Amino acid sequence: MNWFIISGVLLDIQRFFHISDSQAGLLHTVFIVFLLLSAPVFGYLGDRHSRKAVLSFGILLWSVTGISSSFIIHQYSWLFFLSRGVMGIGTASYSTIAPTLLSDLFVQEQRTRVLGIFYIFIPVGSGLGYILGSGLTEQTGDWRWALRVMPCLGAVAVILLIMLVPDPPRGAAEKQEEVATRAPHSSWCRDVRDLWRNWSFVWSTLGVTCMSFVTGALGFWTPKFLLEVRVVHRLQLPCLQEPCNSEDSLIFGLLTIGTGLVGVILGAEVSRRFKKINPRAEPLICATNLLATAPCLYLALVLAPASLLATYVFLALGELLLSCNWAVVTDILLSVVVPRCRGTAGALQLTVLHILGDAASPSLIGYMSSVLRARRPDSYLQRFLSLQQSFLCCAFVIALGGGCFLITALHLERDQAQAQAPGTGVLASEDMEHQGLLAGTGAFTENS
User: Fold this and answer.
1) Alpha-carbon distance 203 to 405, whole Å?
2) Engineered SS bond to 32: which of 99, 208, 312, 354, CB 3.0-4.6 Å?
3) What is the percent of the chain with per-residue pLDDT over 70, rounded to a whole number?
4) Domain 7-167+187-447: assigned CATH number
């Protein structure tokens, strides 16, 4: 909700602060840049200190910043951009550490189910962000009220976190708590170096980066794109003053929630069943979903001038397929990385997917749209075509992500065996041979 509440009122924000498409895209970029810069810090803290304390700090930070940003006046647009960055810092703590906490509470099939439930709330939260932003704007006539509800929810979240959520030893669910306790931590630089030798981690990170590029662009620009489609079809008049029509934000929000609920549950369940038959099931499922998403996005865009209904149908199919991957990609990471390094691994993956993914895509789409518009007559049709043509790159990026997951499947079993070897860290193969651990890997897998 914090990420996408801005998208639900984007036109109002542009008019209030007098910013163009390319500048509006920077709102999301600033949020993500701050998030990715702070993610490694929280990954380090999450592997070595109280995870509940770090999570509570993050939630409080984004809540206080959110309500403060709603009182910024239009002359200080730079301060509003900065507030989005500070909210990114708070979000980084949660995105990095929460999955590692779940991984120490549940294992194997339970973990897949729980991660499925957890990641349902990415699309559900995104959809609620659109609905809350546009709904409150319509009811109050002021988009800033949308930013004043979140701190109340944040306060409830902190209370529930402190009272109800345990903080188990790292590796507890896999019966490795003794190893995690007795084995000294290696240096952060050593952990990072060894993670980049883990090919399943590297290629799955590149795959989820392509996902992030597309979801970031779609999440930020789709409500405005759908509004412009309606204008082209003469279903409504252009927005000339605040507040702008919020119908498409509401519809897209509901669509995101619905496809997210079905997609995450479906993806987790298919993964749980299929990996009993094929040990490489998880990356193969991700690859299949992304390769099928590419034509859906392409058709949603090119059919928009002809049929608004076709655009919604293919957008829904694309969102459904993307949602099927959220729990599965995290399960891949947790299965190929040892418990003591999972916070660092999650932070690194988060950093890469945001640098190359949704930190860049909203700004890139906005910049391309502005460049195309500058070369064309100033009309509503040309504005629509500029944004539509800028969006087309997403179909090619998501197909590239499918290829990355196919490569992940080639390395998955070997990297899982190394991660599950008793007493290991994320070690290079020569280190394992030196310590006599490769022979023990087969016995451990067989006993499991």
Assistant:
1) 7
2) 354
3) 85
4) 1.20.1250.20
